[in-house]
Design goal:
The chain is mainly alpha-helical and 430 residues long. 48% of the residues lie in helices and 4% in strands. Strand 1 and strand 2 form a beta hairpin. The radius of gyration is 46 Å and the shape is elongated. GO terms for molecular function: cellulase activity.
């Protein structure tokens, strides 16, 4: 099929192929004449001189996938894009760095302002070594010898909060205040955070709980006494220096401040247990401190249950200012908070015992103070707290009966607050 040898034959010169140079030249000219004429492109490659267009350097191209474009055009385009990007970025940087007048934020609503001022009140009432950021310029360190100046106690009771215009530290209403502040944080943590007061209110609570941990042996499982009060206010015994006879700045107090302890004070113990238990939920992100609060709360509630009695016996200094009428409502209140803090159902069993509710006045509907939640009567708050438990968790038997009763009574109390029922007197307001 192929007439020629693909190898081309040997390189030796045979006698039969001994033609002269002239003969070979004539054969080459004849072969050239027989070939086709070169086309114009081929001729330009071979014949073009150094100055001709066809002899210039060959163009380079860039293949970008979807098309092939001239390399020079491609480089100019990329450079232009980068230049524009750098210019825009430079302009934006200048715009951001140049100071601008921002519109003032909208003024806070009235409730936010009221909350700011209410929390600032606690800053003003602080006792002890004040932090630099306390925010009340006219207050300084005070009560730095509390507890140490009393020879019967001889331990530091520095800290806590003064009660009002005087410099007495009443632990009973102070503990209730810390319980209530903790409850507001548990329920409305996001609201506090939204107005920038979450850290502030937690600091206030910790100021109170740190002090309360000093008022008893908080590291023990069983205790036999609690500090009920620092300072006295009874002026009926004549002109002797105390916190009501001598009205002065706490920073200027130079007289000894006696410490009052109690050995059977169920109301105070259960209220302090409630305060520490509620605060342990607030500080649950700090496990060591939360556990410390729970441990102290357990010791207090145990002490209150074992050593029955009111913290303010008749004729005592406590009874003149913050007299406690009963300790049964504190058993319900403290038991509820202990359950929320620990999950131990034995506390819920105490808080929902029908006999406990009866002693606390849950069924005394005709009481003039029924439904009034105060530092002395914790029953209305306990009923709300346990109604919340029924609504969200519904623990069922054996707690359901009393929880349903508390829930119904809470509904009635809430309705009684409405002006249409005329159960309470209302101020005109704004």
């Amino acid at each position: 099929m192929f007439g020629r040898d693909p190898w081309g034959g040997t390189l030796e010169i045979s006698n039969a192929d001994s033609a002269t140079d002239d003969d070979r030249s004539r054969d080459l000219d004849r072969g050239a004449m027989m070939r086709h004429q070169l086309d114009e492109t081929q001729q330009s490659w071979l014949l073009a001189g150094p100055g001709d267009q066809a002899g210039k350097k060959k163009k380079k191209y860039v293949d970008i996938g979807c098309m092939v474009i001239d390399r020079k055009i491609f480089m100019w385009t990329v450079g232009l894009i980068l230049g524009v990007g750098l210019f825009v970025g430079f302009v934006m940087m200048i715009v951001k760095l140049v100071p601008h007048k921002k519109p003032p934020p909208p003024p806070p609503d009235q409730y936010t302002l009221a909350l700011h001022k209410a929390l600032m009140f606690f800053n003003a009432q602080r006792s002890g070594h004040l932090p630099k950021h306390n925010g009340v310029s006219w207050r300084g360190n005070s009560g730095m010898k509390d507890g140490l100046s009393d020879s019967t106690v001889k331990k530091s009771l520095v800290g806590g909060f003064y009660d009002a215009g005087d410099a007495i530290k009443f632990n009973y209403p102070m503990a209730w205040s810390m319980t209530m502040l903790s409850w507001t944080v548990i329920e409305y943590r996001a609201k506090y955070e939204a107005i920038g007061e979450l850290d502030h209110v937690k600091e206030i609570i910790k100021w109170g709980t740190d002090y309360m941990l000093k008022t008893f042996n908080s590291s023990a499982d069983t205790i036999d006494r609690i500090v009920a009060q620092v300072g006295v206010g009874d002026t009926s015994k004549g002109p002797m220096p105390n916190d009501h006879y001598c009205w002065m700045r706490p920073e200027d107090i130079d007289y000894k401040r006696p410490v009052i302890e109690c050995h059977s004070c169920s109301d105070l113990a259960a209220e302090m247990a409630a305060a520490l238990a509620a605060a342990s939920i607030v500080f649950k992100d700090s496990k060591a401190y939360s556990d410390k609060l729970v441990h102290g709360a357990k010791a207090l509630y145990k002490f209150g249950r074992l050593q029955r009695g009111r913290y303010s016996p008749n004729g005592s200094d406590q009874s003149l200012f913050y007299n406690s009428t009963s300790y049964w409502d504190e058993f319900v209140w403290g038991g509820a908070w202990m359950y929320f803090a620990t999950g131990n159902t034995s506390y819920l069993t105490i808080a929902t015992a029908p006999g406990m509710a009866k002693h606390a006045g849950a069924f005394w509907i005709g009481s003039p103070n029924y439904g009034v939640f105060t530092w002395d009567d914790k029953l209305p708050g306990s009923q709300v707290l346990l109604s919340r438990l029924r609504l969200f968790l519904s623990p069922g038997y054996p707690y359901e009966e009393i929880l349903r009763t508390f829930h119904n009574q809470t509904d009635n109390v809430m309705c009684s607050y409405l002006p249409v029922f005329n159960s309470f007197n209302f101020t005109k307001g704004w």
